[in-house]
Specification:
Chain lengths: 216, 532
């Protein structure tokens, strides 16, 4: 079922206005998260998706200089970031089969060992923008490293894709997420400075396809 | 009848000659019935003088170093503003100094070297009347009161010194005097003042009363009397963060118990010296203990937070459940502030239907506390007619203990919800029927992403006790659920990136989302339902 673009955009604006209010997670009483339509929705149009409602999409293209290895960072209004693959990432293109996924990024470090405790998430592995999260091994021999793209504490990595890698390809923006990162409170706005907006990302993709058609 | 006998004469003489007042003398002579203390100071002074006359009619009245009357008055008048009414018989008179504290000028008797005036002017009718005036002016409603009084710590030091002196004197007659043979200052003070308060305010004194009248005395002149104790028992006087001075009453008492007589006498005069002025009143306050109002609230708005939503000083959404209820209570109870708590809570965009959610409000320092059930009913109506976003029922006064019942509900009791669910794939009636048959479905919920910034990361095991579906159309259906307390319903529907398992989406093999959520019932049977 296709959703009318207009209805979705209008709802997103309404949501964005309310979500802006959730700037400071440490404010007293800043608990309520606005999630849903405030009026009964007409049967024909669906409400914006879960991601549309809560998150802002940011992109990093050609991560670590590797062409088309684009990542999509979903930034929640409460500053938590979910690291996912952008639609243009090679792993998500048709024909690719994932053989296995590993969170062992070096001999001494496995993202699976990450343990956080308490409200302040002590003990978490600290990530910089280029920190590797996982390695994806494909049946055609290709190997892809997924990077954090944001600075912050690693909350968790998605163990579901370890057991069933196809989820990553079927639902890259939700169940197939890679990791959850909590940026420092002071950096919550600045982390997106090096990232592309949805619009900017779309332009990059268009430029790429023009370039390839030009050369072909 | 004068309470002292021949046997007390030596001690009484000694104390009197060193500047101790009659009531303190009684205390050190073990006079433990109330009546003598209640006589007027003037009368007691005269009776005591008579008692101490020798057979030859001479007054044994050695008052070492008494400053001549003229100079003393002069000293007292320095730095004191205010009206001066010289009363005819030279009794102590009251004047108000800047800042509202009260000072007594005493012209004939010395300021007692033990009680510093506490059992002289400060237990008499005139002072009590002043306190009662303040109580009445404060506008509290009360049917009894508890009177709490606080004395400066140096009084304990002086008491100790006087005890050593008297013990020594009695030792000469081979008599012993334990600390417990002496009547406590505070006790005697209360014997005298309690009936005066009752008479003046027309209510009984009750130790359990919620209405407290408190008076704090200080004596700046002798503040350093205690300091020598720190050198001898330093571990009694460790500085703590919230104490202004290390020399608290408790600390001083502790040190006095430890110190030996010789060391004490080296550092502090026995008998204590006579001070120049009486104590001053540092604080005179009254306050009422908190009262609790409970009830259940319904929330009909999808745009109302439970508590005020303020970021960086800016209010993001108008009003809140707690303000809509509490503001009226604050006014009617004339309270200073409130604390709102409830048995769980719902999101801004979730309605609370059915019987509503139990809540309790603590009203801090209420000035008005007595309400008939009719008045409470009217208060409830007032709240209900002033807003259509919330409604309140079963509003009633409850005790502090009762709050426990409410919080019990938060952890233990079940809740029922109604959700409007959207699916990406088209569904038929038959596709949702299987949900009706699922009983006590176990789910594992990782801390939802939307609260992960302020909650620890953990996995919560919860139970969906039962579900009931109602087909709406190809992409929508309503779901009634009865769940364990603490279940995140929204995440159970959309799956929260697969972090709640199983979820409606995974059970139906679709992508599901939640459009609307209502709380249908909070299954706590408290507060007791009232028939309106």
């Amino acid at each position: 079922m296709r959703t009318p673009q207009a209805a979705r955009r209008k709802d997103r604006l309404l949501r964005a206005n309310m979500e802006e209010a959730l700037g400071s997670p440490r404010a007293e009483g800043a608990a309520p998260e606005v999630a849903m339509a405030t009026e009964p929705v007409a049967v024909e149009s669906a409400a914006p998706s879960l991601v549309d409602r809560y998150f802002t999409r940011w992109y990093k293209a050609d991560v670590k200089g590797k062409p088309c290895e684009d990542h999509c960072i979903l930034q929640h209004s409460n500053r938590i970031c979910v690291i996912t693959l952008a639609e243009s990432h090679p792993v998500l293109q048709s024909g690719k089969t994932i053989k296995s996924i590993s969170y062992q990024i070096s001999t001494n470090c496995s993202r699976l060992q990450n343990k956080v405790s308490g409200k302040f998430k002590r003990g978490a592995q600290f990530l910089t923008e280029l920190a590797p999260l996982c390695k994806i091994y494909c049946s055609d021999g290709e190997e892809y490293t997924i990077s954090s793209c944001v600075r912050g504490r690693l909350m968790e990595v998605n163990e579901n894709i370890l057991h069933k890698p196809s989820i990553l390809q079927e639902k890259p923006a939700t169940e197939g997420y890679i990791a959850v990162v909590l940026p420092k409170f002071e950096e919550s706005k600045s982390i997106t400075e090096g990232l592309l907006t949805q619009k900017q990302y779309e332009e990059v993709v268009v430029k790429r396809s023009n370039a390839t058609t030009a050369t072909s | 009848m004068f309470p002292l006998t021949e046997g007390n004469k030596h001690v009484a003489q000694l104390l009197f000659s060193t500047g101790t007042c009659p009531r303190c003398i009684f205390r050190f002579c073990g006079v433990d019935f109330h009546a003598p203390y209640k006589l007027s100071y003037e009368e007691l002074f005269n009776e005591l003088q008579k008692f101490l006359k020798t057979e030859k009619g001479e007054l044994i009245l050695e008052v070492p170093n008494p400053p001549p009357k003229k100079i003393r008055l002069h000293e007292l008048e320095d730095g004191i503003d205010g009206t001066d009414n010289q009363s005819q018989n030279g009794e102590g008179r009251v004047s108000i100094i800047e800042g509202g504290s009260i000072a007594f000028k005493s012209s004939s008797p010395n300021v007692c070297n033990v009680c510093l005036g506490i059992l002289q002017e400060f237990c008499e009718k005139e002072f009590i009347k002043k306190v009662c005036q303040k109580v009445e002016a404060s506008g509290f409603e009360f049917t009894n009161l508890v009177f709490s009084v606080s004395f400066p710590p140096q009084l304990s030091v002086r008491e100790h010194a006087a005890w050593l002196l008297v013990k020594q004197e009695m030792g000469k007659q081979s008599l012993s005097l334990g600390r417990n043979d002496i009547v406590q200052l505070k006790e005697a003070y209360k014997w005298i003042t309690h009936p005066l308060f009752s008479e003046e305010l027309g209510v009984p004194i009750d130790g359990k009363s919620l209405f407290e009248v408190s008076v704090v005395f200080a004596h700046p002149e002798t503040v350093e009397d205690c300091h020598f104790l720190r050198a001898i028992c330093p571990d009694c006087f460790k500085p703590a963060k919230n104490k202004q001075s290390v020399f608290t009453r408790m600390a001083v008492m502790k040190a006095l118990n430890k110190i030996n007589e010789e060391d004490f006498r080296k550092q502090f005069p026995c008998p204590p010296n006579s001070p120049k002025a009486v104590c001053s009143v540092l604080e005179m306050e009254c306050a009422h203990g908190a009262v609790f109002v409970a009830g259940r609230y319904n929330k009909y708005s999808r745009n109302l937070p439970q508590t005020p939503w303020i970021i960086d000083g800016e209010r993001k959404l108008e009003s809140s459940v707690e303000e809509l209820i509490s503001d009226h209570l604050l006014t009617v109870f004339k309270a200073e502030s409130f604390n709102f708590s409830s048995s769980g809570r719902e999101d801004v965009d979730v309605r609370t239907l059915g019987n509503g959610r139990p809540f309790a409000i603590e009203l801090v320092n209420p000035h008005r506390v007595h309400f008939t059930s009719q008045e409470i009913k009217e208060l409830q109506q007032k709240i209900n007619s002033s807003s259509n976003k919330i409604q309140v029922r079963d509003l009633q006064l409850v005790t502090r203990e009762a709050i426990g019942h409410m919080k019990e509900g938060e952890e233990e009791k079940t809740k029922t919800y109604s959700a409007l669910i959207w699916t990406n794939k088209a569904i038929r009636k038959e596709d949702i029927e299987f949900l009706n048959d699922m009983k006590d479905l176990k789910i594992d919920q990782k801390t939802p992403l939307r609260v992960l910034h302020r909650r620890p990361l953990a996995v919560r095991n919860r139970i969906i006790h039962s579900m009931e579906t109602c087909y709406v159309d190809e992409h929508h259906f309503r779901l009634q659920l009865k769940t364990q307390a603490g279940t995140y319903i929204k995440e159970f529907v959309h799956g929260d990136f697969g972090r709640t398992k199983p979820n409606i989406g995974s059970l139906m093999n679709v992508t599901a989302d939640i459009l609307e959520l209502d709380v249908e019932s909070v299954d706590v049977d408290w507060p007791p339902a009232l028939d309106d």
